[in-house]
UniProtKB/TrEMBL annotation, chain A:
Biased composition, class Basic and acidic residues, residue ranges: 1-15, 45-56, 74-86
Protein origin, superkingdom: Eukaryota
Residue stretches of biased makeup (Polar residues): 91-104, 582-595, 601-612
Biased composition (Acidic residues): 57-73
Source species of the chain: Eleginops maclovinus (Patagonian blennie)
Pfam families associated with the record: Fuz_longin_1 (PF19036), Fuz_longin_2 (PF19037), Fuz_longin_3 (PF19038)
Gene Ontology cellular component annotations, sorted alphabetically: Mon1-Ccz1 complex
One GO term of the biological process aspect: vesicle-mediated transport
Residues in FUZ/MON1/HPS1 first Longin domain copies: 175-297
Name used for this protein in its record: Vacuolar fusion protein MON1 homolog
UniProtKB/TrEMBL annotation, chain B:
Annotated organism of origin: Eleginops maclovinus (Patagonian blennie)
Keyword set includes Transport: yes
Protein name per the record: Ras-related protein Rab-20
Main location: membrane
Biological process (GO), any one: protein transport
Gene3D superfamilies: P-loop containing nucleotide triphosphate hydrolases (3.40.50.300)
Gene Ontology MF terms: G protein activity; GTP binding; metal ion binding
Assigned keywords, A-Z: Cytoplasmic vesicle, Golgi apparatus, GTP-binding, Hydrolase, Lipoprotein, Magnesium, Membrane, Metal-binding, Nucleotide-binding, Prenylation, Protein transport, Transport
Top-level taxon in the UniProt lineage: Eukaryota
Length: 612, 262
């Protein structure tokens, strides 16, 4: 029965309207918190009916629900589209009549069955209470309900940091992200200053710790127009409040990127150490100045599908040029150098790595994304050669690499060289590698060749009605343990404006969420949207998202995909980094603690150094 | 390619130190590019090679953020001059120099010279508000117009990095030259240097404005003049033993301390 609730709840939310009679002191706290948070984040008319769904099973058991797999011939859920539309009409109906708020709290790790039903009843209790409490609490600035999916961007001339957090425009941001410490201290807010939001963040922490006190973990809250997702990582709590239609899973993935970006600057070990030492430490002391890196990351997450696909987009270039560049990098080495990466216009040209270090592990796409974001966000003063510690959280969350960043084509600054060393003192040696690379590139006239490189147009594929696509091959034995990559043409008309780009990305995100649904993953989706038709297909070899003009039939789309796949196969060497060379930089004997395979375990956390 | 790409051994090393947002990057940018522009918080440290007459001067522009504190001593290793920068409108930025940054200079040369620079003087000092740039071609007009406006309004524009930029009023000067000179004295004592035989405080304390260019050239030129003996000594040494380059490298490698971070 609970499961039934859950399934229906996904679409509509379930009305549970038992008015509670027993008073529960902790319930008051949470109810107050909820209504406070509610008032701040999404103001509603005074009359609120809470409909709530409580998910009580641990998430794993959700997989019991039969996963539907559709074959090419099967009916690819045309009703899905209709359902979405129904939802829309419903919510606009709500707008006019009684605005409802559906709260959906998922609890993890419920202790016993008894406890479960208790907690379920309890949540209902407190939600009902929330309604009562709310009327007692006067909150300024109540305004029209925030039900529209589309929101206005604030004026661009104002720094997000200085925004008035009581203003409507602040509430209307599509996606808020907050980072706080377990003690409830604000660490980061995407919009508005952390100080101004300290009480809001306090409420968030109250929610987290309240649910925690019942041996549960708060995962998400669903309201009419918003999804609130919580992610707890060590001493940090990350919260996303989103009015985009992204799924909880996707939003949690984005929060994870934010967490990793913080780790990349401070390392996990030092964050834990700091908070073990002093629970109420103000982490902004260490992150001060890094807000722009986090802001930049969140903008990229919204606008760049690499994050959604967890894959890296490399610049398409002739394989001969890519090989030549790789060889240049391969030759310019120095002890303790582990990665050499060449980037143009924030896209990968090539990547060469050290043999022994990467023997068993490959560079994760997320680590590359963080590096690219760091370069993009910190390149204001581009003439110098930058030397900075950076942690690659998926490679090793507790240790630093030292990154050498330098542009090869000042003053245009489009081609960037990134060299990663494990040696803090290696700047001059690594800078010497850059000179070698620069000389070799000059000799081969590489820079002007790179300058001509462009992303490709979908018209080159030669499939009419195909407007855009994203293709992500999976590891095949051939290129096993390579960086996960994807390829995608430029977004062209009708997706040239920022709004249209975003709309297409939102459609892709929707398709992605259906493919990767934890309860009912799909293998093939043919989706007729308002202004285009999309087809997403996942096999053991690739994941593909395509966008066609609106009147394309299913059969046509499948023929087109066959053509597209053939084209990609043909162009493979140009579109992807294939078989990147490796080099061997003899480890410095003074710290050859790297014994071999067991490295990963004994990674010490003495801050700098000792990568392995 | 510009001459920078040809491997040139820097003759001497200068390091800019100081709290975040005091304007280290802006100072350097004003000196090298003759411009004032919005900068973003420096990541780690940035290395520049400045051609000064026949000499190559390497300048490390470091990040002021506490996050990068662990790297400070690496940037300072073997430095011939350290520019300790503070913000004249922020007393704490001067205090931080003593608390946080002075100890980083332990790895600098024993004969390293220290300069104390109070930046953002245009915020408190009318004479620093006039555009100073000796190269009038580029931004003098722009700057001049801006200044006229602000003088009429008797309000001071402030660098965007400064939190005070929100207030838009003339800021209280929090650090006087006397404070800086007193700190200079304490630095000499910390270094165990004799005040009599060292460079006098009046000569080594500067007030600058990266925004208007006030005193910026004077600062750098004065320092370059002062490190000239070091340059010549280095050149001599490297002529005598051509291996000095490698030696230095290796020496640095061995000294690699297992310093804990943060």
């Amino acid at each position: 029965m609970e499961r039934d609730n859950h399934q229906v709840g996904e679409t509509e939310g379930v009305k549970i309207c038992d008015p509670p009679c027993e008073s529960n002191p902790p319930a008051d706290t949470l109810a107050t918190s909820l209504s406070l948070l509610g008032n701040h984040m999404f103001p509603d008319p005074v009359e609120r009916n809470y409909r709530s769904t409580v998910k009580e099973e641990p998430e794993d058991s959700l997989s019991d629900i039969t996963a539907e797999e559709e074959s090419l011939d099967g009916d690819p859920h045309p009703h899905q589209v209709t359902k979405l539309e129904t939802e829309e009409t419903e919510s606009s109906g709500c707008q006019n009549n009684v605005s409802t708020q559906q709260l959906d709290i998922e609890n993890e790790d419920a202790a016993t069955d008894n406890d479960r039903s208790d907690s379920g009843e309890f949540v209902v209790t407190m939600l009902a209470k929330a309604k009562l409490e709310e009327q007692g609490i006067g909150v300024k600035g109540r305004s029209s309900p925030l039900l529209e999916a589309e929101t206005q961007e604030p004026p661009a001339f104002m720094s997000h940091r200085d925004e008035d957090v009581t203003a409507d425009s602040w509430r209307q941001h599509r996606k808020h992200v907050f980072v706080l410490s377990e003690a409830g201290k604000p660490i980061y807010s995407r919009y508005g200053s952390e100080e101004a939001l300290s009480s809001t963040m306090g409420v968030m922490m109250a929610l987290v710790s309240f649910v925690q006190s019942g041996d549960n973990i708060i995962r998400s809250i669903y309201s009419d127009g918003h999804t609130v997702v919580f992610l707890q990582k060590g001493p940090l709590v990350l919260v996303c409040v989103s009015s985009s239609r992204q799924t909880e899973q996707q939003l949690r993935g984005e929060l994870l990127y934010v967490y990793y970006q913080i780790i990349s600057m401070l390392t996990q070990a030092s964050i834990s150490r700091i908070f073990e030492h002093k629970k109420n430490y103000d982490l902004r002391r260490l992150l001060a100045g890094s807000e722009k890196i986090l802001d930049g990351l969140l903008n990229l997450v919204d606008s760049d599908p690499s994050f959604l696909l967890a894959a890296v987009h490399c610049l398409p270039i002739a394989s001969s040029l890519r090989d030549a560049l790789s060889q240049i990098l391969q030759k310019a080495i120095t002890p303790n150098l582990v990665f050499s990466i060449l980037i143009a216009n924030n896209q990968l040209l090539t990547i060469v790595q050290e043999k022994t270090v990467i023997e068993d592990s490959r560079l994760e796409p997320a680590d590359v994304h963080l590096l690219l974001n760091l370069i993009g966000a910190s390149s204001a003063f581009q003439a110098g050669e930058i030397w900075t510690p950076i942690c690659l959280p998926l490679f090793n969350p507790d240790c630093y690499f030292y990154a050498y960043i330098s542009y090869l084509d000042p003053p245009e600054c489009t081609v960037c060289l990134l060299l990663l060393s494990t040696d803090k003192e290696a700047f001059y040696a690594v800078a010497e590698c850059k000179r070698k690379i620069e000389e070799a590139m000059m000799a081969q006239n590489s820079l002007s060749l790179i300058a001509k490189v462009q992303s490709y147009s979908v018209s080159q594929v030669g499939v009419s009605d195909l407007r855009h696509f994203m293709y992500k091959p999976f590891d095949v034995p051939d290129n096993y343990r390579q960086l996960t990559q994807f390829t995608s043409p430029e977004m062209e008309a009708p997706y040239s404006s920022e709004e249209e780009k975003m709309r297409l990305l939102d459609l892709y995100r929707y398709m992605h969420s259906r493919i990767h649904s934890s309860s009912r993953p799909l293998k093939l989706i043919y989706h007729v949207a308002e202004r285009e038709t999309l087809l997403a297909w996942v096999t053991s070899k690739f994941e593909l998202y395509t966008c066609f003009s609106p009147l394309v039939t299913k059969a046509c789309a499948i023929t087109a995909i066959t053509k597209l796949l053939r084209w990609i196969k043909k162009e493979e060497d140009r579109l992807f980094i294939r078989n990147p060379p490796k080099y061997s930089t003899t480890p410095n004997p003074s710290k050859s603690s790297r014994g071999g395979k067991s490295d990963q375990q004994d990674s010490t956390d003495n801050g700098f150094l000792s990568l392995l | 390619m510009p001459e920078v790409s040809k491997m040139k051994k820097p003759d001497v090393k200068l390091v800019l130190l100081g709290d975040m947002n005091v304007g280290k990057t802006s100072l350097l940018h004003r000196y090298t590019e003759r411009k004032f522009k919005d900068t973003i918080s420096t990541v780690g440290g940035a290395f520049f090679l400045k051609q000064w007459g026949p000499y190559n001067i390497s300048i490390w522009d470091t990040a002021g953020r506490e996050q990068f504190h662990g790297l400070g001593s690496m940037y300072c290793r073997g430095a011939a001059a350290v520019i300790l920068t503070y913000d004249v409108t922020n007393w704490q930025s001067l205090a931080e120099l003593e608390e946080r940054f002075l100890s980083l200079t332990d790895t600098a040369n024993h004969n390293c010279i220290y300069a104390l620079v109070g930046n953002k003087a245009d915020l408190t000092d009318p004479k620093a508000q006039l555009p100073q740039d000796s190269d009038p071609s580029k931004d003098q007009t722009e700057c001049g117009v801006e200044r006229t406006d602000t003088q009429v309004l008797s309000a001071c524009p402030t660098p965007p990095a400064s939190p005070a930029s929100l207030s838009g009023i003339t800021l209280q000067k929090q650090v006087t030259p006397e404070d800086a000179m007193a700190l200079y004295g304490r630095i000499l004592r910390y270094k165990g240097l004799d005040e009599k035989s060292s460079l006098p405080a009046e000569k080594m304390c500067f007030e600058t404005s990266a925004k208007t260019g006030y005193n910026v050239d004077d600062l750098f030129e004065a320092l370059f003049d002062l490190v000239l003996p070091s340059i010549l000594r280095n050149r001599n040494e490297s002529q005598q033993s051509p291996t000095v380059d490698l030696e230095e490298c290796r020496g640095a490698g061995n000294k690699r301390a297992k310093s804990g971070c943060c």
